[in-house]
Write a structure and sequence with these properties.
Elements (H helix, E strand, L loop, with lengths): L2 E7 L9 H6 L6 H5 L1 E7 L1 H8 L5 H10 L3 E2 L10 E2 L3 E2 L3 E3 L9
Antiparallel strand pairs: 1-2, 2-6, 3-6, 4-5
Length: 104
């Protein structure tokens, strides 16, 4: 697959997708919760280069997104290392929800 996504509240707090999710939200997400949530994406480097940045320099695209606050970074790197479901800690590009509101 090459990417993962996570729902966030408007405050940037991840919505749980485990047993706490059922206790907090139930089987289905109410419309008011869905309207107040955002999505961030985690993209593996191979998919970033081959699919997302096809035809463009991947490092340049990452730097541009980071400059606009749309790419999560850590320790001077353009990638982050979160614990991804089914994969464990993996180096990947974190696309923040701010990208959807970016005006160019």
């Amino acid at each position: 697959m090459g990417f993962s996504r996570r729902l966030l509240t408007l405050d940037g707090v991840p919505l749980c997708r485990d047993s706490r999710h059922a206790a907090e939200i139930g089987d289905r997400m109410p419309a008011e919760v869905g309207e107040k949530s955002q999505t961030e994406y985690f993209i593996l480097p191979e998919v970033w280069r081959a699919e997302v940045c096809q035809g463009f320099d991947p490092q340049t695209v990452a730097r541009l997104l980071a400059e606009h606050g749309c790419l999560g970074t850590e320790a001077g790197r353009l990638t982050v290392k979160p614990r991804l479901p089914g994969m464990g800690p993996s180096r990947c590009y974190q696309i923040k929800p701010e990208l959807m509101a970016l005006e160019v």
